[in-house]
Amino acid sequence: xxxxxxxxxxxxxxxxxxxxxxxxxxxxxxxxxxxxxxxxxxxxxxxxxxxxxxxxxxxxxxxxxxxxxxxxxxxxxxxxxxxxxxxxxxxxxxxxxxxxxxxxxxxxxxxxxxxxxxxxxxxxxxxxxxxxxxxxxxxxxxxxxxxxxxxxxxxxxxxxxxxxxxxxxxxxxxxxxxxxxxxxxxxxxxxxxxxxxxxxxxxxxxxxxxxxxxxxxxxxxxxxxxxxxxxxxxxxxxxxxxxxxxxxxxxxxxxxxxxxxxxxxxxxxxxxxxxxxxxxxxxxxxxxxxxxxxxxxxxxxxxxxxxxxxxxxxxxxxxxxxxxxxxxxxxxxxxxxxxxxxxxxxxxxxxxxxxxxxxxxxxxxxxxxxxxxxxxxxxxxxxxxxxxxxxxxxxxxxxxxxxxxxxxxxxxxx
Amino acid sequence: xxxxxxxxxxxxxxxxxxxxxxxxxxxxxxxxxxxxxxxxxxxxxxxxxxxxxxxxxxxxxxxxxxxxxxxxxxxxxxxxxxxxxxxxxxxxxxxxxxx
Lengths: 414, 99
Fold this sequence. Notes:
The structure holds two protein chains of two kinds. Chain A has helices at about 35-45, 45-50, 85-90, 110-120, 135-145, 160-170, 180-195, 205-210, 215-225, 240-255, 275-285, 310-320, 325-340, 345-360, 385, 400-405, and strands at about 5-10, 15, 30-35, 80, 95-100, 125-130, 150-155, 175, 200, 230-235, 265-270, 320-325, 370-375. By secondary structure, chain A is α/β, with parallel strands linked by helices. Chain A has a domain at about 80-100 and about 210-390: Rossmann fold. In chain A, the strands form three sheets. Chain A has a six-stranded mixed beta sheet with strand order 4-5-13-10-11-12, sandwiched between helices. The longest helix of chain A is centred in the middle third of the chain and has 15 residues, at about 240-255. The radius of gyration of chain A is 21 Å and the shape is globular. The radius of gyration of chain B is 12 Å and the shape is globular. In chain B, β3 (about 65-70) and β4 form a beta hairpin. Chain B has helices spanning about 35-45, 50-55; strands spanning about 10-15, 30, 65-70, 70-75, 90-95. Chain B is built from two helices and five strands; from the N terminus they run ββααβββ. Chain B is of the alpha+beta class. The interface between A and B is medium-sized, with 42 and 27 residues.
């Protein structure tokens, strides 16, 4: 926290104090946290970070809230898994999985929520709120409970049952909106003006919230021995996560934690049923035309992505690409990841793996690159997506004859 | 489309926090105009300063501003030329939210 200088508009450069502001009062451009990087560089070291907690808060000097008294369920420091079997299937060389299914409520949203509510509490807020496609709902409800804050979580009415139950269990208010996520988001943007004493994590405290995603870059670099990967594949919903992972690698270099400046190619993954950013990429546009989502990847179903233009900038400037995949490919992506590496991802992870497969097949992601795929949510949240394909191999009477009759067995030579 | 019968003579514009310094703190302002762009210009006439905040230098609605007519994004309608009827509500909302 001592390293935050204030907020700055990404569009027009106007400066603001570090308060609950998310857009420029003049031009409505997004506000970014401005840090004193020289002071951070003097304060951080690889050893000090390694001696820190096994959570996002090991990187506190590069976050906009103080670690002391953080609203913390242990988000972050998730495994980075070498994925040789999946790499072989996809014709890739060195492939890693950032397994963010391992977070407290099962998605990367615990990272951003921990940062947002820590900052919200610093600013004096007592009520937490959000617009969510489900994963954020889980994270906000849980962290608000942990912090003793009241919560109001707004979700589309047709979310997966698991995501509703795993939000409501924490005892806050869960408001289902008769509309899609973009309707929920619009309502929350309007409610923010009516309830300025509520901390909407992805509206009025979004500037701080989004910074939490930088830890996805910090951890990967540290886990790779303080090296940035050559190429990463990240799912795109609002586009914020992709831009912040890029910012995270850049910041590590800025404060002297990397030996070499990062040259990480940033690629994005969308569902074909909601691919406004992939479409803009393919058509060469620098703006994003909104769409009405229709995909099983509900956690990515944002038809009007706030950071879409910025994600396009990052992908193009780093030599990446943005792919999109059908619902059937998403399901196959989930199954491929589970079958080859033992990681069960929600639909967004299926989008990422299926897109990675396409980008590998077309030579965009190369065999000579060190690649990281971000798996950002747990498969238990979206059981419906794969339930039709997954059941018992056989259901039999409890005796050997029935087993032998029903199951082809194979006994490896010892 | 829903009709709000509380302001049958004009179009109600919902004002975001960021513009309320220009409306004397009001969250809703009623103006008249046949299209979105005319409504926004009428809003600027009664509350000078609004136009330069909403429109970019070329006169287009900024990409960082979303405008809704009766809760529908005007980019799914006819953009700035979307017709507006008396009794309808126009909402001005910062685009950067969510996700």
